[in-house]
């Protein structure tokens, strides 16, 4: 075997005298089919040369069909390098991208919140008759008639309570006083907010008692009272539960159970939202101001005098 | 329970027939009397001052007298009831929290993962 190998390689060097040595060497190893292998090797060579010439033709072809103007092409290596290092992005593009994106996010978020509030307000309005609130007739502390019409044109903030309330109402009224001041500050003193206190205990809470009581909390609170039936009617309108006994003996001491929500009503006197025990003066003011600002933004009428 | 004289202010009548409610200072006085009385109850391990009235009066005689002078009878009753109610409420919250924690422990032991 070794002798034949040697003789073959001698024949190979003698016949081809070319530089195709590695292919020929492996071919020689496989023996026998020497000539066939040689042919294959030359074939490979010729194919690669023809394909390279094809490539050149393709390049020429492509260039002739090119539509991009020649001036876009980089003139110098510097320009080419600069373009390649940043690609189509520059700081201007990045800034524009960030600003547009940020703006969109903020806009969508604000708009979403506004629509959500509007939905809540619309939902509370119900169809036809409002679910909470409605016409009533009571008397203010000067004995003048006060009806639901007097609440219209402003945002009103209605609270039901009684002066002999042990601890919850005084706490809530202190909160109300804070809210009044905060809303006043936020609306820059515009008179668009009407805090109202309606007593559930008309037998004991006469105008004089109510006036003295409310003065301790905030001078702006409008106190309202009426007959037992009038109060019962307004409580029913506002879906307020209360347990005042109808006939009480003079001097009898009792407490009144009642619902402890603030009702925010819009200038059409439609119910907007409840403010409850869980709200802080800050969170309540935020809610109220959002509604007032929405109302203003929609250009609806609002009394300010 | 009504043998002690109660605060004269709560029976005050306004000129238009209404009854004057305790003002801020008398409310404050009432709260202070209440807090003092309740501290005494805590010290003597009494929860319900209505049910254990005799015991409360024996041990916190001075405090209850002050409390009942500073607050009207309805308020006294209200605060005593509220004390029991709040105690039960806190107990319930505590129990639920404990049960929740135990349940979480159990679920974790079973290899359950939140999320």
UniProtKB/TrEMBL annotation, chain A:
GO molecular function terms listed in the Swiss-Prot or TrEMBL record: copper chaperone activity; copper ion binding
Residue intervals of the Thioredoxin domain: 127-293
Coiled-coil features, chain-numbered ranges: none
UniProt keywords, alphabetically: Copper, Disulfide bond, Membrane, Metal-binding, Mitochondrion, Mitochondrion inner membrane, Transmembrane, Transmembrane helix
Organism superkingdom: Eukaryota
Signal sequence extent: none
Family matches, as Pfam families: SCO1-SenC
Location relative to the cell: Mitochondrion inner membrane
Positions contributing to Cu cation binding: 165, 169, 258
Residues spanning the membrane: 89-110
Chief location of this protein within or outside the cell: mitochondrion
GO biological process, one term: mitochondrial respiratory chain complex IV assembly
GO CC, any one term: mitochondrial inner membrane
InterPro entries in the cross-refs: SCO1/SenC (IPR003782), Synth_of_cyt-c-oxidase_Sco1/2 (IPR017276), Thioredoxin-like_sf (IPR036249), Thioredoxin_domain (IPR013766)
Tagged with keyword Disulfide bond: yes
Cysteines engaged in disulfide bonds, as pairs: 165-169
Family: Belongs to the SCO1/2 family.
Protein name: Cu-binding protein
Origin organism lineage: Eukaryota, Fungi, Dikarya, Ascomycota, Pezizomycotina
Encoding gene (name): SCO1
Automatic annotation (TrEMBL), chain B:
InterPro entries to which the protein is assigned, alphabetical: COA6_fun, COX6B-like, CX6/COA6-like_sf
Keyword Disulfide bond included in the entry's annotation: yes
Compartments (UniProt record): Cytoplasm; Mitochondrion intermembrane space; Nucleus
SUPFAM superfamilies associated with the record: Cytochrome c oxidase subunit h
BP-aspect Gene Ontology terms: mitochondrial respiratory chain complex IV assembly
GO cellular component terms listed in the entry, alphabetical order: mitochondrial intermembrane space; nucleus
Coiled-coil boundaries: none
Keywords annotated in UniProt: Cytoplasm, Disulfide bond, Mitochondrion, Nucleus
Span list, region Disordered: 1-25
Family the UniProt entry places it in: Belongs to the cytochrome c oxidase subunit 6B family.
Family annotation (PANTHER family): CYTOCHROME C OXIDASE ASSEMBLY FACTOR 6
Full protein name: Cytochrome c oxidase assembly factor 6
